[in-house]
Amino acid sequence: MYEGEIAIGPVHSTMLEPHRLRLFIEDEVVKDAELTIGVNHRGVERLMEGLPVEKACILCEKICGICSHIHLWSAVRVVERGCNIEVPERANYIRVIVEELERLHSHTLLFGHAFEILGHETMAMRAFMLREPIMQTFFDISGSRVHYSCPIIGGIRPRCNIKDSQIPTILERLEKFEEKLKKLMERTLNDPMLVSRMKDIGVLDRKTAAKYHAVGPTARGSGIKSDMRKMGYVPEYEPFEFEEILFDDGDVLSRIAVRFYECFESIKILKQALKALPQLPEKIYNGDYELYEFKPIDCYTEAQRGQQYYSYGLDSEGRVRHAKVRTPTATNLAAMEEILKDYHVTDAELIIASCDPCFTCTDRLIITKEYIK
Question: Is 64 annotated as ligand-binding?
Answer without folding.
Answer: yes
